[in-house]
Design goal:
The protein has 148 residues and is of the alpha/beta class. The chain is built from 5 helices and 5 strands. The chain has a 5-stranded parallel beta sheet with strand order 2-1-4-3-5. It is globular.
Length: 148
């Protein structure tokens, strides 16, 4: 059982179409769902304190959607970069330890709260570069299609 937990809704049709296709391919191999929590608005002139509050509130919402018995993989720029075969091994090792539920978390445009990162069992990075969080959904799903 795999869940993709992310902040915000996709606005672009081309991302939505890609995700629908990949979601169907993944569902042929395992139970899969995507859970989207609302992203919180922030003013353009927001200071650091306001941005931190948004990240904290989004983090609390994300944490409420994570089952206690899930193996959590947080997408973080400072996470480990893996080859697909290594990523598959991470999942297999967790399965061997008895995990049956896996949750991938993609934060909003401001990132993940420290509490969410602390809850993660694994921090995964696709690159040291920064990508839009909408594109990261497509990238995670493409990786799952490849390794499942």
């Amino acid at each position: 059982q795999i869940q993709l937990l992310c902040v915000g809704k996709l606005k672009e049709d081309f991302y939505r179409n890609l995700i629908v296709d990949m979601e169907q391919r993944i569902k042929r191999r395992c139970h899969f769902d995507i859970c989207q929590i609302p992203d919180l608005s922030i003013s353009k002139n927001a200071g650091k304190k306001e941005a931190e509050q948004v990240v904290l509130r989004e983090g609390k919402s994300l944490l409420q959607h994570i089952p206690d018995d899930a193996y959590v993989i947080a997408l973080c720029i400072d996470g480990r970069e893996l080859r697909s075969s290594e990523h598959k091994n991470v999942l297999q090792n967790a399965k061997d330890r008895g995990y049956q539920k896996f949750v991938y978390i993609i934060g909003g445009s401001l990132g993940l709260s420290a509490d969410v990162v602390k809850r993660a069992d694994y921090k995964l990075s696709f690159s040291k570069m920064t990508f839009p969080h909408q594109l990261m959904r497509v990238m995670v799903l493409e990786e799952l299609v490849h390794i499942l």
